[in-house]
Amino acid sequence: MASFHNRAEGTVLSKLSELRTVCNKDIEIHHQNTDSIFASFGNFLQSQRSKAELTVHNHVKLGKLKVELRELEDELVRALAVKTRNEVKRIAITDSLSETIVKADELQKIVQDQAARKDEYASILSEQSKENSREASRSREEIQEAFKWYNRILGFRIDGGHGVTFTFTSVNKKCPAEEYSFTVRHANEKYTLLGSKPHLKDIEELVHELNKSNGLFRFVRIMREKFQTTSLGPVSHFIYQDQDCTSISLSAPVSLGSICSRSKSPLPLREVNGETKKLDHG
After folding, report:
1. CATH code of 256's domain
2. What's the burial of 183, exposed, middle or buried (CB within 10 Å: 0-12/13-18/19+)?
3. pTM for this predicted structure
4. pLDDT at 147
5. CA-CA distance, 163 to 166, in Å (whole number)?
6. Which of 121, 136, 180, 235 would bridge with 198, disulfide CB 3.0–4.6 Å?
């Protein structure tokens, strides 16, 4: 009984020993697995930490990228605004250029029309100028004929010098060759009678009327009539001294200012009867 009991106890102990051995092996295996798990978990944590740090870094970088993206969007908006304004300007310039081209075409047509009218007017003016030249030539011929008639019939002559001298012949029927003359000067918009041959009295009113009316040819006609009246009675003659006279052409109206002499000194007049006086030419 005791041996059986010993054998049974030995068997139990061996089994327990085997179980202990198996348990130790299992514990060792579990320890290894646990170490492996802890190591894996540590690696996992390290990996997750790295990923978390990378994620944080990426978040920071993403924030910066968002800021840059907003700035780029703002730049894009400004660029689009500038482009829109430039496009509006381009359209306005294109429209203005089109209008300018149209106006240029219109102006070119106007210039062409004006050139055609200019040529037409030039032709008309040329014809008119020729006609005027012919009329002027005929007028000059008629004036020349009239002066020839005056010189031949009335003995009328004009001489320039210190004033303008109007000379008449054929006044005295008894002596047609006898000369009657008077000298007029025009200066400072005023006529001045420098003298007459023969001397005429009471002609201040005629000179005053001449300055009022500027009717020189009427004055000349009245002076000739006075010479005719004087030729019927006794006359007194006077002599011009130091007067530089130059005969002028009468093919055009006479300008007293252009005929008068360069001398600016008073003209001395001496009458035969001894009376002497000086006339101011001013």
Report:
1. 3.30.457.50
2. buried
3. 0.37
4. 66
5. 10
6. 235
Q: What is the span of the domain harbouring residue 206?
A: 156-279
Query: Is 101 within a domain?
Result: no
> What local confidence, expressed as pLDDT, does residue 279 receive?
35
**CA neighbor of 256 nearest in space, from 167, 161, 185, 152:** 185
Q: Is residue 48 part of a domain?
A: no
**Which residue type occupies 65?**
L
Question: What is the pLDDT confidence band of residue 211, given thresholds at 50, 70 and 90?
Answer: very high
User: What tokens does 111 get?
Assistant: 């210039």
Residues 91-124 pLDDT 10s? 999 999 899 999 999 999 999 999 998 898 898 9
Domain count, the chain: 1
What percent of the chain is modeled with pLDDT above 90? 32
Residue 196 to residues 52, 178, 226, 270, Cα–Cα distance (Å): 137, 14, 11, 11
Determine, yes or no, domain membership for 19: no
Residue (of 210, 183, 213) closest to 279 by Cα position: 183
271 and 238 in contact (C-beta within 8 Å)? yes
| Residue 192 in domain | yes
According to the model, what pLDDT value does residue 60 have?
Answer: 92
Estimate to the nearest angstrom the gap between the alpha carbon of 139 and the chain centroid: 44
* Residues in Cβ contact with 270 at an 8 Å cutoff, skipping those fewer than 6 apart: 238, 239, 241, 276
Nearest to 194 by CA among 252, 255, 144, 265: 265
